[in-house]
């Protein structure tokens, strides 16, 4: 069993931006020289998330609308009262979406569905530089 780790810095420009990370995952698998194993993709930030989605403009809009409806910005969050930074909704959204994904890979290819991409979702009130860790175990 081997391990491989790659750390990326991903720049987002605005709240709600969705960044396709699928090619970075594929390149990490190739660089690892492993054929089979598991990839953990992790974002060590409390106002960003990693999910899978069909990366197309309609679904990107739908996701933003669903988040606005389910976890709205315009309500009072205790986080706002504590810190005054206006991003309580960002933290809650991240908690619901999650900070990591596990993707198996076989023959050097991630086992993703035809219309499934790995994406980073920027949830904070402004763009940021985000660290994304891709760690592989396999053979």
Question: What is shown here, in short?
Answer:
The protein has about 140 residues and is of the alpha+beta class. About 30% of the residues lie in helices and about 35% in strands.
Could you characterize the architecture of this molecule?
By secondary structure, this protein is an alpha+beta fold. The protein has one domain (2-138): Jelly Rolls, CATH 2.60.120. It is 29% helix and 36% strand. It has helices at 22-32, 57-70, 78-83, 88-97; strands spanning 2-11, 18-20, 37-42, 48-53, 100-106, 109-110, 117-122, 129-138. The strands form 2 sheets. The protein has a 5-stranded antiparallel beta sheet, with helices on one face. A hairpin with a 2-residue loop joins strand 5 and strand 6. The longest helix is centred in the middle third of the chain and has 14 residues, at 57-70.
User: CATH superfamily membership, which one?
Assistant: YjbQ-like
Biggest sheet layout: 5 strands, antiparallel
The percent range for helix content is 25-40%
The CATH architecture assignment turns out to be Sandwich
Question: How confident overall, as mean pLDDT?
Answer: 97
Q: Looking across the biggest beta sheet, what order are the strands in?
A: 1-8-3-5-6
CATH class, named Mainly Beta
Shape: elongated
Number of domains: 1
Give, in order, the helices and strands.
EEHEEHHHEEEE
